[in-house]
Amino acid sequence: MTAAPRSCPALPAVAERQVPAPWNTLDFISDLHLQADESATVEAFQRYLRATQANAVFLLGDLFEVWVGDDALLEPGSFESSCAAMLRGAARRRPLFFMQGNRDFLTGAQFDALCGTVTLADPTVLDCGGQRLLLSHGDALCLDDVDYQRFRSMARSPAWQEAFLAQPLAQRRAQARGIREESESRKRGAGGNTGGHDAGMPTYADLDAEATRSWLRAAGAETLIHGHTHRPADHDLGDGLRRVVLSDWDLCARVPRAEVLRWERGHGLRRLPLARVLEQAAAR
Questions:
Q1: Residue 18 carries which DSSP code?
Q2: For labeling, which of 35, 154, 165, 209 is most exposed (least CB within 10 Å)?
């Protein structure tokens, strides 16, 4: 018996943002998975925020390894409060746009207020003077990861979030650790290693090509920029459509990873290793 064809998810209500004419350079990064016990990545991000010459920075999800609620920002001496200070300082120099990922989807209005960020809806169309870029974290289009899509639907519901956030902060932290450990164990058991990653790293389901094309057509955009999969690449989707996958950041890996996708007016998109971004800033 032939299985019924899988339907593509409709494009959610899409926000639009126009790039101001004076802005000539934009940076896109994602999947830094900042956490207290991996200080090298945190320090690299701090160096980047001080060095970049971009007019604005777009953080497309999973900035944090886990987020258990904005009240963590108010805990004296917490990792979250130190990150808020770092982001707030950077936001005084240039706009920081933030999009929720699958690890930090519980950020709210207090996050923006204390970090100086501007949260974008997922997805958002960025109109760069005629070139329309569709921005997303990417996880909603990973249709083959059925277990994750089931969890995503549950965890994005107001009822689930209200119940979770009603628990004490320490209890939420403990639950988040358990969910993360279970997720990583399942991914390692299912996939092993993806090319370019360290042995033992989890693999991630990739975006569904037809669903991606459907989103792009509905948004009137030719290029999707996303993270989530940790597989940086450019994919030709046919009919003039493409998706550009951001690199994750891991400065603690055997082969450290950190990359910026930069848009420059008149030149389009190009990938820059973090080291190159820092070198360019030092040369100015």
A1: E
A2: 154
